[in-house]
Design brief:
Length: about 90
């Protein structure tokens, strides 16, 4: 299990590597913006400031956006504890 912290709200929830960040947030009762849940609408786009994620399907992000830490929470599965910026 990995700990995921959403800033600036300082909300924390747990996620295993079999679920996406969005699935874990919703299962924990955390309000997390989302619409399509397949990486097309960008409603769940957030910035990873610490930690690592993996994708079964590569997200529609440029290399630069990925280097800046942007992730699609609906597709990203944690591979470590995460700190995410969600404004």
């Amino acid at each position: 299990m990995y700990t995921i912290r959403l800033m600036p709200h300082n909300l924390t929830f747990l996620c295993d590597n079999n679920h996406t960040v969005l699935e874990a947030a919703l299962n924990a009762g955390v309000h997390f913006p989302n619409r399509c849940q397949v990486g097309a609408c960008a409603a769940c786009l957030c910035k990873k400031t610490e930690g690592e994620v993996s994708y079964a399907l590569e997200p529609m992000l440029t290399e630069n956006e990925q280097q800046e830490g942007w992730i699609f929470a609906c597709l990203a599965k944690p591979t470590s504890d995460l700190i995410l910026q969600l404004d």
